[in-house]
Amino acid sequence: MSEESFGQALRRHRRAAGLSQAQLAQELHLDQGNLSRYENDRQRPEPATVDALDALLCAGGELRALANAATPQPATRGIPTAGAVQPCDETDAMELARRVAASDISSETLAQLEMTFDDLATAYPASSPHNLLPRLREHLGYISQLIDAPRKTLAAHRHLLVLGGWFSLLAATVHIDLNQHAPATARLRTAAGLATHAEQDEIRAWCYETEAWRTLTGGDYRRAAELSQHAQSIAPSGSSAEIQATAQEGRAWARLGEGNATYRTVERVHSLSAHLPKPVPAEHHYRYDPGKAAAYTATTLAWLGDPEGEQHARAVIDRFRPTNDFQPWPRRYATAHVDLALCTARNGRLDEAADAAQTAIASGQVAPSSWWRVREVVNHVTTGKLPTAGELQDSYRTMISR
Question: What's residue 290's pLDDT?
Fold first, then answer.
């Protein structure tokens, strides 16, 4: 049996994943014509494209190995005697330098993409996931085109891999917010693959942290703690990724009812974030700000059942209360009301719990991935047979039907 080519292996893995050429091309923002040529071995994809295909199709490195094996070796003009000076030595060196410096991608383009990512990461806490996703898809498609550009410097190529990793990570987060788990998985794999190729441990750590959050919302709390710990182990020391992964671990311990582990982790989050400068812009999703620790503590203690969770939730509400029709942190404000609702419900103050939950729902800032948190409060209020339980149930049903 003859050895399988890269194109044949790509076609086999695509079909095993249940994807058509059009679907795979759309998922990775590739031109379908290019994908067809890849599968027919008429065109060789860029290394970053191979990495993305291998990650998305769960090929376990097979596609990468076949692509590397198919890379033609450079012609040798005849190997000169050791030490002999050849007439072409100088011109070959100059030609190599020219080719390395040649690029169709300007530094201005890369800088603009960086600024766009910062804008989107800053908009994330206050924007509808439905509005962010089309913009992320558009820019991921553009980055994919640039990666396939025939002329670019090695530095520009690596820069594009890093940018592709960040954009894919944020897109995965938005998919999770929308409970779109299949594309979220694909985006996370792509982000992790690009980060590995670019040797970007911070992005890799954020990938594990993001998966930890998704796992936690799915109810597998111990696995969420393990993923959070792994994220911490690869995150750069003192980075936002390390702090956020530590916070995620604390949430997991709280859901498991492990009080001592929860308190130790909360203390570590505050210790790590205490001396952080306020990031610019302050709302950037991937730059931890000290104020985030307060909101995190409210949620974690509320989940643990610590009465102090109520005090922290009220402090967050006061801090982020809208003023003059301006709301800088609408999602934190809504989440703090959910925390307050859970605390008061557990203390038997069901009227207050229902009011706080209604405020959170009315804000329109509870992401689909957090609907389960509101449902917890609804269940408490319903079990307590509060007269207004029916109204809260109606509000909850309206929210999840949007």
Answer: 76
| Terminal Cα distance for the chain, rounded | 55
Q: Work out the number of other CB atoms within 10 angstroms of the CB of residue 46.
A: 17
Alpha-carbon distance 134 to 287, whole Å? 23
User: What is each CA distance from 383 to 16, 343, 360, 379, in whole angstroms?
Assistant: 47, 16, 20, 6
Among candidate residues 174, 151, 137, 152, the one with its CA nearest the CA of residue 28:
137
CB 32 within 8 A of CB 75: no
Contact call for residues 235 and 245 (beta carbons, < 8 A): yes
Task: Count the Cβ atoms, other than its own, within 10 Å of residue 178.
Answer: 18
Looking at residue 219, its amino acid is G
pTM recorded for the entire structure: 0.74
Q: What is the pLDDT of residue 1?
A: 43
Residues of the chain with pLDDT under 50: 1, 72-80
Of 367, 352, 312, nearest in space to 336 by CA: 312
What single-letter amino acid sits at 277? Answer: P
Residue whose structure tokens are 């979220």: 184
Q: What is the pLDDT of residue 37?
A: 84
Phi then psi for residue 45, to 5 deg, are -75, 160
Which contacts (CB < 8 Å, 24+ apart) does range 272-277 have? Answer: 272/238, 272/242, 272/243, 272/246, 273/243, 276/243
Tell me if the bond preceding 45 is cis, omega within 30° of 0: no
pLDDT score, position 292? 83
Q: Tell me the two tokens of residue 145.
A: 């085109």
Query: What is the spatial distance between Cα 27 and Cα 188, in angstroms, rounded to a whole number?
Result: 12
d(CA 160, CA 146): 8
Query: In this predicted structure, what is the pLDDT of residue 84?
Result: 54
CA atoms within 13 A on the CB side of 226: 5
* CA atoms 374, 210, 298, 290: torsion sign: negative
Q: What is residue 261's three-state secondary structure? A: helix
Say if residues 340 and 314 touch (Cβ distance below 8 Å). yes
How far apart (Å, rounded) are the C-alpha atoms in residues 193 and 251? 27
- Predicted local distance difference test score (pLDDT) of residue 31: 76
Q: What is the pLDDT of residue 316?
A: 92
Cα-only R_g, the chain: 25
Name residue, tokens 């000290």: 290
The amino acid present at 205, given as its one-letter code, is A
**Amino acid at the residue 252:** A
